[in-house]
Amino acid sequence: MSLPILTAVTNSVVESGLVTAFGRRDLGVTVVRRCVDLPDLLAAATTGAARAALLSADLRRLDREALTRLAVAGVAAIGLIVPGDEEGERRLRQLGVAAVIATDSTAEVVAAAVVEAARALSDRGQAALPSGAYGEPMASFAAVAPVVPMPEAADLPELGAGRVIAVWGPTGAPGRTTVALCLAAELAGMGLPTLLIDADVYGGSIGQLLGLLEEAPGLAAATRSANQGTLDVPRLAVLCRDLGGGLRVLPGIARPSRWPELRPASVEVVLALARRLASFVVVDCGFCLEMDEELSFDTAAPRRNGATQAVLGSADTILAVASAEPVGLVRFVRGLSDLREVIPGTDPWIVVNRLRGAAVGGDARREVSRAMVRHVGSEPVALVPLDMAGMDAAQAAGQLLRDVAPQSPARLAIGELAARVAGRPVRGRRRRSTARH
Amino acid sequence: MTDLTPAVTLAEKPAVVPSPPGRRLTRPRWRDSRLLVGVLLVLVSVVLGARLFVTADKTRAWVVAKGDLPAGHVMVAADLATTSAYLSPDAAKRYYPGERAPEMVGAVLARPVSAGELVSGADFIRSNVASTRLVSVVVKDGRAPSLVPGDHVDLFAYQRSSAVIPSAAPQAGQSAQAAQPAAGGAGTEVLVLHDVEFISREALTGGAHSLTLRVPVDFAINAVAASQGERVDVVKLERGARGEVGGAGPSAVPGYGQ
Questions:
Q1: A92 and A136 share a domain?
Q2: Residue A33: which CATH number?
Q3: Which residues of A are less than 8 Å from B24 in CB distance?
Q4: Taking burial as the number of CB atoms within 10 A of a residue's CB, which of A15, A103, A114, A294 is the most buried?
Q5: What ipTM goes with this model?
Q6: Do residue A309 and residue A186 come from a single domain?
Q7: Which residues in chain A touch residue B4, judged by CB atoms under 8 angstroms apart?
Q8: What's the pTM?
């Protein structure tokens, strides 16, 4: 059976030659449509009429998002470059196009590459994507088109060396950002290079909490670069801000309305590169896990919570933060079940924040731990007491809690959490001293 | 607590790609460059301001009395102190600057000096000044020109008889001439005093004036005597180009009746 393919080649002479060659001889491929531009190609791909697409490196607006949509539609992408165009080849490979062929290759070579790429996508797709992946809102492009290390980055450590710690929590401000900030600071304080990323699509505030004076483009610029296939480790490092002491920060979007810039596929690329920049990548996530876009049946629409899900999907460890008051605990129990649905098989570490006796009654530590075991099935990893004075002072000064209140009980609890995350021995201390307030 | 699985092996040496340092709010510290610059600015301003004031300061030390001193007091060093003040050049000529305080030790005060009062040259008895007398002379209205204190005048008196007014020897600065008896029975106009200092004038009832004159000791009696006369005239002396008042002229001429 002949493989149906699409073409989107900017050089019409080359395209005509290939179409003619494929038509004359039985090379195993059939051109079902010659697309004039990228939107045309994507529209044709979503019809399911083709299994592969030949596209030029200089196709306008070709980015990772477009390739993700092709992959989700089950269309393998094969890049065509002008002979000697190393820049174009590198960009295509960075975008995740596995097969790149020069235009002076014979039709047989091109056809063979197309068939091979379609088969590879089919094999990988069946393994990586659940059945009906097309209808699934969250299809990980990393699964179908992994990030290809660049040749000049050979001296850099292996991909995936750093660990990604996603800090998530349900709605209601349980203290995700606070925990992420303190955790990153404590990890860096242990001498472990740490990168803190603000990926909150609903109003990140890490830049303000750190007292950053400039509104750096941060994650939005990184995802934009990743989408265009120009992001690499040095570029990501330039977008980060060094806070000293081994701690870097990649600020989030300046306004919540800019969430469409945080495309899930690009966020995955950023995280993959961030692993090579730091031993620990602490990511502050948004709270919402819903995919309302499903309701509209428009799967091509940008998904606001896609970035959050991309982070949670990429994370090595998920810290689920709960606020220790009745309302916060109920929200957490419900939110955690949503999280387990969205990220199957995950076993998040439970961090109870804002712990104080007045809101729970009795021995706050024991009560909250019991409630967690009863309703969630596991004990909290960390119980962080509420230190309103210390947090307020840190926020007012735009400084880290460890710098403003080194002996804050909240800081000490997160320090223990950081030691657990890093696999270091936890320093013993009198726990009862901070249980009641 | 949940029993956690050990952490994976960490990348001890991740990519050493530098990131630009983040510009952050800084915690207020004493070692703040802005504080140092501010303190430096204040210090420089103070020093420059002080130098400016010192340069622009025109005050000098002047001698003042430490306590109340009576007239006739013989000055000792303990009576004198200095104070800083600015005096106009004209006023400055009258007072003693601080460095001349030793000169005043041993001098005798001519008048009482209050505590804190600037000491002037006029406060001391000068050795070369002869004694004088202040004498009041009653002059009828219209027989004296308008005078200001310090003017020098001659005093004429009409002498009905031919009595002789005792002559007086000329004094330093004063050249009163002895009156000579005049011929004739209508009386004599006599120059009683020549070139004496007018001090003050006081109006009396009936249109007369009492003029106070400073006269040499020996001539005081002349003035007193003349004041008893019916007709006394005061003549103001106008100084010439060299400041001289001219000679006394004839001391007596025949009178013209009453």
A1: yes
A2: 3.40.50.2300
A3: 210-213, 243, 398
A4: A114
A5: 0.71
A6: yes
A7: 349, 381, 420
A8: 0.61
